[in-house]
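Let us work through a complete example step by step.
Step 1: write down the sequence.
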Amino acid sequence: MCSSAGTATSIASLCTVLLLLAGRPAHVHAGEPQVPLVFENDMFSAQLHPRSPRQVAGFYEARGFPKRALEALRGSCFLTVRMHNRSPTVVWLELHSWRFLAGTRELQRLSRSDWDSRWRRLVLPQANRSTFRWTLLPESRDLQADEPVGGNVTLPATDIPFAVEARFATGAQKQGPMRTMRIENVRCAKDDSP
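Step 2: predict the structure and record it as tokens.
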């Protein structure tokens, strides 16, 4: 979302969030693919950066999140996604068309409404809820020519490698051809050993 869309304050806040999350790379174990995981075609590029529980908790703790919220965050898998529309036409980012496949099993993404329910149960202050929402990848977004967008996608934590599969409509009215993305061997990041 680090683009001309939206107010200068919200853009600056989100850009700061993404830069801070992009700081230190997650720990990669021997035999695992290097991060970020990258997909590119003639229309768009995408990068996935798995974030470790320690990275995620540290980021939100620095923004005043209480311990009960940090525990909920540590138990989830965070993928920081950066996409860039490299084409002259609109590419539609719609998270409902993303699938997370671990073999024959589909992992269910934790949506904004899932997190809202968690935050209500934990009585998380509205300021923390707003901060968290700013760090998520938009549920739906039209990426204009040469426009980037970034944010987090979250899943329940798993030790099983999975594939990220997504479909993207193209064209201002979604009249263009569908494009697909598949990134294999994605893993939730783990904390470094002490």
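Step 3: interpret the result. Strands lie at 37-40, 44-51, 76-85, 91-94, 98-102, 105-107, 140-143, 148-156, 162-168, 179-186.
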